[in-house]
Amino acid sequence: MIPFILAFVVFVRALFQMLKEQEFRQLFILVGIILALGTVVYHNIEGWGWLDSLYFSVITLTTIGYGDLSPSTDIGKLFTIMYVFMGLGVLVGFVTATGEYLQKRQHQRAAGDAGLAFWSRSRDSDPHDNEEIRQERINGQVKKSDTEE
After folding, report:
1. Averaged pLDDT for residues 139-148
2. pTM higher than 0.70, yes or no?
3. Residue 35: phi, psi to the nearest 5?
């Protein structure tokens, strides 16, 4: 359960960071509009409650399709066909943008850690030291002036 919570927290933090970018913000708003459209249409055409309508909209666009709800009217079925074609592309774009952002952020962190490791290595090492002295210096046991003759 803890890994799920941590992953969710990372996702929410990344989402707030991504909302600072204009392109992502527009895509996020578009996803919200499409979900709201589906929710309103299913509520009015199928007579479902608001939560069921939102639930069906999300389940349909993510292609999960549990089968617990399905449109019973012809208009609802036709709308669902158009809704899938219209919304699936937008939702895929949103998920792709989110994945790319998280991947970019992970690469930036890895590059930052690598830069830190390089800095600490170059600061604590001397090309004339043998490995034992180098390790002692890293551990703080030997000062550079102690090894110089």
Report:
1. 55
2. no
3. -65, -40
